[in-house]
Amino acid sequence: MTDMTRTLLCFGDSNTHGTPPITLPRVQARHDAATRWPGVALAALGDDWTLVEEGLPGRTAQFEDPVMGAFMDGRTGLRIALQSHGPIDVMTLMLGTNDVKTRFGATPAKVTAGVAGLLDIALGEEMQTRHDGFRILLICPPPVREVGPIAAEFFGATEVSKALPPLYEALARARGIGFLDAGTVIESSEVDGIHFDATAHRKLGRAIAEAVAAL
């Protein structure tokens, strides 16, 4: 970096995008910038940080979605994000919630393997060289609750998602990156079982800022 400004790239799905708990399917909504956890984290980190938000509702770590589209596969999106922005100093990665949808039939190990593939891209020589090195905070999403208007898409997902934190933590340790279990900070909404309300965004944003600073 040629100046003291540092850049945080937040890569994820609807919970990075800022989708509030869903009460009616197919209604598009988004928390405002000050409410979304990336904005909360930015404010906590201070004026010498800038933010890039890369949250796509429906994004998975590894699956082309037969309903939402092939571009939901996070591997393509991550390459595009890392080549579109930068240089970055820290990237947060929070994916896996959509990977536990019933239609993908993924085990906890399979979900974790998808995240490992994304880390292989981000930690590879090409991307690390492009950005002159950057650090990564891997965030495990809180467990899914099978409630609300989209519960049918997540039949059986609670059990799978509850098994993810120790696997993500072990993966982060193996890759030498930071780790945060979001489920120790917040819970998914009781309204739709997936998304975060404004209070949860504030709590998570502050926790992520602390974890990023600790890197």
Automatic annotation (TrEMBL):
- InterPro entries according to UniProt: Ester_Hydrolysis_Enzymes, SGNH_hydro, SGNH_hydro_sf
Gene3D superfamilies documented for this protein? SGNH hydrolase
Among the GO molecular function terms of this UniProt record, one is: hydrolase activity, acting on ester bonds
Q: Which residues form the SGNH hydrolase-type esterase domain?
A: 10-202
Query: Which is an annotated Pfam family here?
Result: Lipase_GDSL_2
Supply the name of the protein: Lysophospholipase L1
**Protein's organism:** Tropicimonas sediminicola
Tell me the lineage of the source organism: Bacteria, Pseudomonadati, Pseudomonadota, Alphaproteobacteria, Rhodobacterales
